Amino acid sequence: MEAQGELLNPESWAQVLELYAHAMGIAVALTDHAGDLIGICHNPQPIWRLARKAKSEWGAGCLFCLNSGRGPSGSCTAAADALQTGSMVLTHDYAGFAHVALPLALGDRHFGMLLAGQVFDHYPEPLALERAAKDLGLSAQGFWNIARLQVPVSGSNLRVYGSLLLTLGRAVLDQSYGRVLKRRLAASDAKLQSANQELEQANSNLRDKVAALDKSNGEKDVLLQEVHHRVNNNLQVIASLLRLQAEFAENHQVADALRTSQMRIESMALIHAQLYGADDLRQVDFAEYTARLANNFLVSYGVDRARIGLSVELGGLKLPVDQAIPAGLILGELISNALKYAFPEPRRGSIRIEGGRSGDRIELVMRDDGVGIAQLADAQRRKPRGLKIIATLCRQLRGTLEQTQGAGEPGPGVVFRISFPNQVPDGDPSSS
Fold first, then answer.
1. If you write DSSP's letter for every residue of 204-266 in order, what string do you get?
2. How do residues 34-80 score in pLDDT, each as one tens digit?
3. What distance in Å separates the CA atoms of residue 282 and residue 321, rounded to the nearest whole number?
4. Do 13 and 30 meet the contact criterion of CB atoms below 8 Å apart?
5. CATH of 4-177 among 3.30.70, 1.10.3470, 3.30.565, 3.30.450
6. How far apart are CA 36 and CA 278, in angstroms?
């Protein structure tokens, strides 16, 4: 068995941990089995940096906890618990920071620990931050101003990040051990070098493109398109991960929730996919987007087009991105509810989406001729989360949502009317 120093050589770990830390937007540190730092903390978070700077003599204890050195009652035992149980442990410090401890082992021998986090898993609590600022001799307001800029990472997502990091950590540990694994590591290095060469070539091509764009004054639009393309790709990756988790979920409700989240993310990705290559990056062709969105839901739910019809009549309606995303998510929730509850087998019917600009307002209407408002309301009471999401999105749009009984055939159906401010004046060419 190689010495621990060889297996936990910080030079062997630095690149993987640095890439992972910045890709996930969290801090990562490698430690020995006693919890002492090996190498550096990768991507340390701003508030943690400030705390360390304010307190030059940091007490013994967890690297990621602000309450290190506060005595036995404030000591973090996550690393010790992870080593004892051989599994991931999630913990918080007294200021609200969350992190996970991940044990590194080969067989039954423990070598070290990976820590990942320095994030809030919920919106930071002012009183806890005020207490931490006081202990560190910092301005409570300044501490709060920094903390509130950090986007919380939910506990479940932090566990997913931790699972991925643990997988990467075990791979690196394995690659450092044995002749066979060394050959695999060499192959991996070759692939990495090839990827670096491709990246360098791509960077070279991008530099050429930027130079050409400087001449044609088109740099801004092309770069924005590239941003939308990458955002779309990232959202599609997240949606694919949710779909895979749903397929392996044994609990039906969990699987259904994962698929619903997948479709919501795909609804947002569709906006960025549409903007990629568009001539006008300020506006989304909302009519085209809605048609594609509705079609995606029909395909996802395996709807028989001969049984449930769908029509979209929004003219040439275009919306800014910050309105198109919440409006699209609202329509997605309404379409999903209609497909789930309004047309129980073998009932036939149709869904119609229409609307446009009306003075200083945007009006969207979705109507169906399904089972009616009474039965739909009963289904919504059983699963109210969708309605809460719709209400939140309406507030984001500063708009309103009205739900009324329809007058369709063969069933009464339901009519939803969405209204929110028109951000683009009627005389603006981009509004057409």
1. HHHHHHHHHHHHHT-HHHHHHHHHHHHHHHHHHHHHHHHHHHHHH-SSHHHHHHHHHHHHHHH
2. 778 898 999 998 888 888 787 766 666 788 887 654 434 457 788 88
3. 7
4. yes
5. 3.30.450
6. 52
Give ∠ CA 360-275-356 in degrees, rounded to 5.
Answer: 25
User: Is 60 exceeded by the pLDDT of residue 244?
Assistant: yes
Give the model confidence (pLDDT) of 328-377 as tens digits.
888 888 888 888 888 888 888 888 999 998 888 999 999 888 887 766 55
Higher pLDDT, 250 or 232: 250
> DSSP string of 386-427?
HHHHHHHHHHHHT-EEEEEE---SSS--EEEEEEEE--S-TT
Q: Is the distance from CB of 147 to CB of 124 less than 8 angstroms?
A: yes
Chain centroid, CA 358 distance in Å: 34
Could you tell me which CATH number the domain at 283-432 has?
Answer: 3.30.565.10
Sign of the CA dihedral running 84, 111, 172, 98: positive
pLDDT tens digits, 61-70: 788 887 654 4
Residue among 244, 281, 402, 272 nearest 328 (CA):
272
In the chain, where the domains are located: 4-177, 218-281, 283-432
